[in-house]
Amino acid sequence: MASFLIPSWVRLAARIFIVVTVIFLLAPLVVVVGVSFSESQFIAFPPDGLSLRWYQTVLSDTVYTSAFWTSIRIALLVTVSATVLGGAAAIALHRRMLPGSAFLATFFLSPLVLPTIIYAIGMLMFWSAVFGPVSFVTLWIGHTVIAIPYVVRTTLAVLSESDPFLEEAARTMGAGRIQRLLYVVIPQGLPGLGAGAFFAFNISFDEAVLSLFLRKPGLTTLPVQIYGQLEFSPDPSVAAVSTIMIALTVVLILVIDRMLGLQRFAST
Amino acid sequence: MSDRTENLLLAAPGLLLLALAFFLPIGQMLVLSVDGPEGATLAHFSRFLGDGFYLGVLWRTVRLSLIITVICALIGFPLAYIMARVGPRARLWLIILVILPLMTSVVVRTFGWVVLLSRNGLIPELLRDMGLAGRTFALMQTETAIVIGMVHVLLPFMALSILGVISRIDTRLEEAGRTMGCSFLQTIRTIVLPLSLPGVVAGSLLVFTLSASSFVTPNLLGGPRLQVLAASIYKSVTQTLDWPFAAAQAVVLFAGILLVLIPYVRLTASDNG
Questions:
Q1: Any transmembrane segments, and where (chain A) (predicted)?
Q2: Predicted confidence (pLDDT) at residue A1 exceeds the cutoff of 80
């Protein structure tokens, strides 16, 4: 709306509203970061003193480091599997040559709409009945299923804005199927595939519900470890781990913004 | 190889994975929910629906989810409207500020609220200092704490759902309304709100389902006394190890969520296609 049409009291109210909302959205994150630099034994905000001792504790505590490596390993595997499977599916969906394309799109997006807890309990029961005790592979497969819709969405969004005649042109000029995929379609969808890959990493790394249902000794991811500590007796070391996770999220958001543009992601 | 075969080959691995590792497990859960020592039984369901405790859990889940959805809509609508109408730089910043918590692990965010709401935390202390609360005032382990934490977790979903719709509204409609004598609030009420209703409804359905199926935040902020349905499922799976009963509870949740999800999928299908 042209700016002279907005009364000044509305501008003022909007400013106040935005400030309050932003404080609300950021408060818990700021508090976690603050606590992590505390010198005291106890969780307190504002923190008492300033030190890096809890980071030292975290980096030398095998409970945290092993959970960290478990999380990283799963997240990296999920990034690869979800991007390959979801990306290939998105290319097929984009071409709209399969029967029931609309149904297929819903099929691929369904893990996104179904609450994770329902999937988590099904996966636990199914795996136990068919394969026995859950393992690293169970979690890998489970996270891949949850992450695929994000890759499908980002890749489809990018492909739908690309020039469809480029592939036709390549075909008439004699490019084979593989060549067309490698040199035309995949480069066209690359920003979407890239953003989807980073989403997949983020989802797997942060995921708590499936990981909690499939938890067992030796299969503890970082969010599960933090959850366990919170149920028991948290000390500022939990804040230090959480801060590391927040920092990683910030990096991922910046990367996704570079690849795809957050504006676009927000409206798709 | 025909084009069709090529596309089928591309989609097949993903299709197979989702069929075997997503739909099959959900089917397994449905089967287990009617599993008894002597064949199929509805005993787990009658146990759930016949027990006042579990009905209380169900009622708390529905009630809290409704409250959380309404609060998210009340904050999310103005937030999305402002996001859509500010300049591009400010919009990018607001989007980052909304997405940052969205992409941070729920466990981490809830931890932040545990610190803020605990007995000696910033918020109860502030309320006590301002004389708004008594000495024994506590927020942790209350439904209020659950609502605060859940609104924080789910507000980004609501704001982004509404933003998607509002940013497609032609601003000239509002200008026309204003120049023809509507007050600012009248333009919002008679032009923006009706046009953004699909976004508000889609966001509300999404927030409701996510809220009804959360247990991490309710467990950590509400404690074991204030159980919600998802927390009760988690308890049945990990503590009492009563899997058929857990499956029955999950089916109850699933049925309730499907009622909400079907209109949601209808509403958003046009966006995804």
A1: 12-37, 67-91, 103-127, 133-152, 181-205, 237-256
A2: no
B110 inside domain: yes
Q: Residue A17, exposed/middle/buried by CB under 10 A (0-12, 13-18, 19+)?
A: middle
Position A268 confidence tier, pLDDT thresholds 50, 70, 90: very low
Domain ranges of chain A: 59-267
Establish if B75 belongs to a structural domain.
yes
CA B220 to CA A227: how far, in whole Å? 8
Are B227 and B57 in contact, with CB atoms under 8 Å apart? yes
Does residue B107 lie within any of the structural domains? yes
Under an 8 A CB cutoff, do A246 and B78 touch? no
| Mutation site for A-interface testing, chosen from B71, B79, B94, B115 by largest number of A Cβ within 10 Å | B115
Measured distance CA(B244)–CA(B43) in Å, rounded = 10
State pLDDT tens for residues A72-101: 999 999 999 999 999 999 999 998 777 787
Q: Does the domain made of A59-267 have the CATH classification 3.90.550.10? A: no
- Find, in chain A, the residue whose alpha carbon is nearest to that of B15: A108
* SS3 letters across B131-184: CCCCCCCCCCCCHHHHHHHHHHHHHHHHHHHHHHHHCCCCHHHHHHHHHCCCCH
The per-residue pLDDT of chain A, averaged, comes to 90
For residue range B94-147, what is the model confidence (pLDDT) as tens digits?
Answer: 999 999 999 999 999 999 999 999 888 888 888 888 888 777 788 889 999 999
B69, part of any domain: yes
Task: Find the CATH number of the domain harbouring B232.
Answer: 1.10.3720.10
The count of structural domains within chain B is 1
